[in-house]
Amino acid sequence: QPDISSILAQLGIAGYNPSYSTGSKWSHAANGEHIHSMSPVDGEKISSVFAASLEEYDHVISTAQEAYKYWNKVPAPKRGEIVRQFGDALRKQKHALGTLVSYEMGKSLQEGLGEVQEMIDICDFAVGLSRQLYGLTMHSERPNHRMYEQWHPLGVVGIISAFNFPVAVWSWNAALAWVCGNVCVWKPSEKTPITAIACQRIAEDVFAANDIPEGVSNLIIGDAEIGKLLSADTRVPLVSATGSTRMGKAVAMQVANRLGKSILELGGNNAIIISKDADLEMSLIGAVFGAVGTAGQRCTSTRRLIIHESVYETFKAKLVKAYGQLRIGNPLDQNNHVGPLIDKDAVNAYLASIEKCKAEGGRFVVEGGVLAGDEYNSGCYVKPCIAEVENHYEIVQHETFAPILYLIKYNDLEEAIALQNGVPQGLSSAIMTLNLREAEQFLSAQGSDCGIANVNIGTSGAEIGGAFGGEKETGGGRESGSDAWKAYMRRQTNTINYSNTLPLAQGIKFDL
Ligand code: UN1
User: Fold this and answer.
1) H-assigned helices in 210-266
2) Does residue 164 have its Cβ closer than 6 Å to ligand 1?
3) Where is the active site (predicted)?
4) Of 224 and 27, which is predicted with more confidence?
């Protein structure tokens, strides 16, 4: 077991039990409700924090608004320089933070470190971006006129993140939002507040070292109530939310009600099509990692395999064999493949899904179950399982955040694509094939309807350079790379007349 108290000390958060932070000041609420962070690894309490009160929430937002007045005047490349320093600070703390992510969330140490690497990568991306917030120039139809567009920051950006990527998803939003000139208010999952505190500490030291006033990076602890406040608050022009479709719909409706902007990154129900022309060894690694990695708790986790009937039995046998070799246990032990689920509620949801699947006619070829014994004391360790199902089962249409993999048989590619698209969610998708025609058909407009479509790669493990997000019930938002930054800014079209007359557009005459 890692020495968690020395890790908390190294991260500078030993004895921190806040309800919020605006940067330099950490509030230790006297009367807020306690939130205990329990590790799913061993069931031990890591530390406690407090839910922020309404007054504290208001204080955070007004501090952020004040900071915005300063921050939007800092030139973008200078903002990028500060984000560069933040990335460097993360490099120094990569091991400590990655270990804490693994211990608080339960993902493998490799994945915890990988998550911090994603944070570093997005900082590098944002630094470059800080000199590339480009607008277009257009030719005006009027003589001696110039037309162009520029991008301005929005103001206070609310970030609601989920437990499964407790630090990386915040950084995708925050690093871009900062270089764009916004200030951020982060509400992390109440299941993983300690890693959030660690990130905020790292960020605030960097801002302070650059004499930036408090309020550019803000953290607020709480449950769905804080999410509701952010969603309804006209002082928060953009809310970026990651989590369940149910949560996202609530956020979307609140934000839309005031015509605010939102970026939604919600549930996935990701499938890999395994074609008759697939490299089955490669497919096996992609499928198993996608299904059991992070104990099936990624939005991009592989939930369904749509397998060609000619390779179905062979591939099923390979899967069953591979699942037999999986080592489940402490995620900090690098010999293990699969760690725990986040908490006992998640275990119950997993068990309920298995029951529902059986009731609908699903046949389990690898049985699930909760593990018992010393090593599994937290009660959160479950067996990854596999069921043969029909795509239309209600449970198959639903995202269960657990390592339950569904197998579906197909015989022609159009049918496979229809099955892959035949769910309410639209995040990630993949085809395993060495056949160019199949690959291109899958990527065409008649192919996958998801935000992410891969060939000969699984559904999870996206790089930060691409835009990340999906369609339909996944929410439609895009975060991270490509031009996702535009969602954090407002576009302004500017037309300038340098003639000595006032010609009107469309040739309209208006003489006085
Ligand atoms: C998520 O599960 O919310 O593609 C994000 C991946 C990661 C991000 C997942 N880079 O699996």
Assistant:
1) 224-232, 245-257
2) yes
3) 265
4) 224
Does the C-beta of 461 come closer than 6 Å to ligand 1? yes
pLDDT in tens, 440-454: 999 999 999 999 999
Q: What is the C-alpha R_g of the chain?
A: 24
Whole-number average pLDDT of the chain: 97
Report pLDDT digits (tens) over 26-60. Answer: 776 666 788 999 999 999 999 999 999 999 999 99
Ramachandran angles phi, psi of 120, nearest 5°: -65, -45
Only one residue has tokens 């769905």, namely 224
Q: Measured between alpha carbons, how far is 465 from 506 in angstroms, rounded to an integer?
A: 41
CA 263 to chain centre: 11
CB 291 within 8 A of CB 384: yes
Residues 424-432 have a mean pLDDT of: 98
Q: Is 165 in the pocket of ligand 1 (CB under 6 A)?
A: yes
User: Beta strand pairing status for 156-160 and 238-242?
Assistant: parallel
Question: Which ligand 1 atom minimizes the distance to the CA of 162?
Answer: 3
Cβ of 376 less than 6 Å from ligand 1: no
CA neighbor of 179 nearest in space, from 134, 218, 215, 126: 126
Please identify which residue in the block is written with the tokens 């535009």.
486
Residue 220 Cα, ligand 1 centroid: separation in angstroms? 23
Length of the chain: 512
Of 238, 229, 254, the residue nearest 55 (C-alpha): 229
d(CA 169, CA 175): 10
Probe target for ligand 1 pocket from 299, 425, 427, with the most ligand atoms within 8 Å of CB: 299
pTM (2 d.p.): 0.97
Q: Tell me, in angstroms, the distance from the centre of ligand 1 to residue 225's CA.
A: 25
ipTM for the predicted complex comes to: 0.97
Phi-psi region of 209 (alpha: psi -120 to 50; beta: other; left: phi over 0): alpha
Over residues 308-325, the mean pLDDT reads: 98
